[in-house]
Amino acid sequence: MSEALHGALRIALLTHSVNPRGGVVHTLELAQALHQAGHRVTVMAPATAGQAFFRPLPCPVELIPVGPASRDMTEMVGARIQAIERHVLGWLEAGHAFDVLHAQDAIGANALANLRDRGLISGFVRTVHHLDHFDDPRLMAWQTRGFLAASQVLCVSRLWQSVLRQEHGLEAALVHNGVDTLRYSRVPEPCDQQVRQRHGLVAGQAHGAPLFLMVGGVEERKNTLRVLEAFIQIRHDLPGAQLAIVGGASLLNHDDYVQQFSATLQASGLPIGPGQAVVITGAVPDRDMPALFRAADALLMPSVREGFGLVVLEALASGTPVVVSRIAPFTEYLDDTDCTWADPMSVASIARAMHEVLKHKASADTLAREPPDVCRRFSWPASAQRHAALYRAFHSLRELPHARHALSPSLA
């Protein structure tokens, strides 16, 4: 029986970009936790000239050279699939060996599927965070192939397990996200005020100017337009309120939705920019995120579709209450004591939840500074342990002659 079934695993984690998106954050946190558990982890990601990951890692990182992102998404995805395929092949030809090749998205998965089809690797693992709809049939085909070609499929929520089972007849294993409660904490840090000032954030609810925070940029999936419409209503009652939208470094093209959002914002007459009613920061330094959560009176995440919603745990660990959609996956791990619910399709419901969450914030400020129970239930070391067990099950099955790569009920 292989040493990999008992000792340290050699793991390659592939992610689609170096930008701070949920799946990329998951990759880096998982890599660090696996590394700390004694495994030999290498993280691989495509990057343009001068790009690097938004936070340092304790394990080796391989940045795969690619050209600037094309406005033609199909062309860009195809180019990145080829670049990752060439890069991994180069590693294999140089004599590097991995017990596990694990793609966190369809781009890396298709590169590994190409290598598998050429007989150069025996299989690979794929995590499905969520699935998108694309008008381009080639993008849809790549998305589907990315999990159907995998030898072992993982999901971060029961919602997407169910989708894969019902729509594709595929059984996926559940793995959880986590939260670093040392990094994300209610305890203020000396830099907090500087971060506030640098991004033009207002004083906060205690000074009659509540700050609502969104993370992920302006995207239809994030429901940013309805949040803006709800905020416009809120400003009638709370004229000092501020909406800060941070992040948004996505590879996907959201131009049409951004135009709708911009037209609505302009028609509202709300001032835009640092210190104004609406602040749109774009990508921010990763080191600023804990302070941004602590600065906010509430995190708004009434998304219409999510894989898990990692920033919800980060906000809660920072002592910031959250508004989330009363839909899966949020309903899988949150209850009435953890959040304020909203109907993501109703602007009025989102506005009511925004009013309600401010009341919750006022009472929560009097509570102990320990992270809530929901944050203690999810940790990256536990996620790494779960991944390692699934990797070993996958590795064991690969060593059995003619074995099918299915998981036992106890692991699935």
Helix and strand element order:
EHEEHEHEHEHEHEHEHEHEHEHEHHH
> What is the CATH H-level superfamily of the largest domain?
Glycogen Phosphorylase B
Distance between the termini: 22 Å
Radius of gyration: 22 Å
Proportion of residues in extended strands: 5-15%
Shape: globular
Assign the CATH class of the largest domain: Alpha Beta
The total domain count is 2
Low-confidence stretches: 399-412
Given helix and strand content, the structural type is alpha/beta
**Order of strands in the sheet with most strands:** 3-2-1-4-5-6-7
Mean pLDDT: 91
Largest sheet: 7 strands, parallel
The amount of helix comes to 40-55%
How many individual β-strands?
13
The CATH architecture of the largest domain would be 3-Layer(aba) Sandwich
Task: Using the coordinates shown, work out and report the CATH topology of the largest domain.
Answer: Rossmann fold
Task: Supply the number of helical segments.
Answer: 14
Topology diagram in text:
Elements lengths: L9 E5 L7 H15 L3 E8 L13 E5 L7 H21 L6 E4 L2 H12 L7 E4 L8 H12 L3 E4 L2 H11 L4 E2 L17 H7 L12 E5 L8 H14 L4 E5 L8 H14 L9 E5 L6 H7 L2 E4 L8 H8 L4 E4 L4 H4 L6 E3 L4 H18 L8 H4 L3 H19 L14
Parallel strand pairs: 1-2, 1-4, 2-3, 4-5, 5-6, 6-7, 8-9, 8-11, 9-10, 11-12, 12-13
Helix pairs in contact: 1-14, 2-3, 3-4, 6-9, 7-8, 7-12
